[in-house]
Design goal:
The chain is an alpha+beta fold. It is built from 8 helices and 7 strands. The chain has a 3-stranded antiparallel beta sheet, covered by helices on one side. Strands 1-7 form a two-stranded antiparallel ribbon. Strands 5-6 form a two-stranded antiparallel ribbon.
Amino acid sequence: MRDGPIRTFLKWFARSVKSFDLSVTRALLVRHGEQRYRLSGSCNSCGKCCETPTIPVGRAVWFVRTLRAIFLWWQRVVNGFELIDTDPRFKLFIFKCTHFDPVTKQCDSYESRPLMCRDYPYNLTFQAVPSLFPECSYVMHDKKAEGLRAALKKAGVEGEKLAELEKKLFLTKDPERARDE
């Protein structure tokens, strides 16, 4: 389902408004030191992030029926996301993207894709515990990795346990991916 001119304009307008809001919000977060991770690497076109886009929402959208209906309408009609599941525990809507071709792993409306698609995985650098797909070639690295690693060593953590914690806490780059950078 390729985007026509009206849907392309709607996406552009929404993306422009949200992009401005996001840039101001993130500038404030960065200023206050709340961007915890650095992102390195590049897209290898695995398509995992496109297969089932997942959108977290606030309490108002989750619980207010009218807001929820408007949100889901926008995702279906404008973005081409068909709702397939929800996760009430984390207030997540899980979709299937009608623009994604699983065979070619390409988006048929790449130029007019929504901001959430353009922003992934950079948006994860503001989360407490980012979660990349195993197939993803991006690498997260904690900005305070050296201090955290030193604290672990000072606490007597070493060997396999240290290596495991370094990986889980994004304290070291994956050697396979780091070679490609």
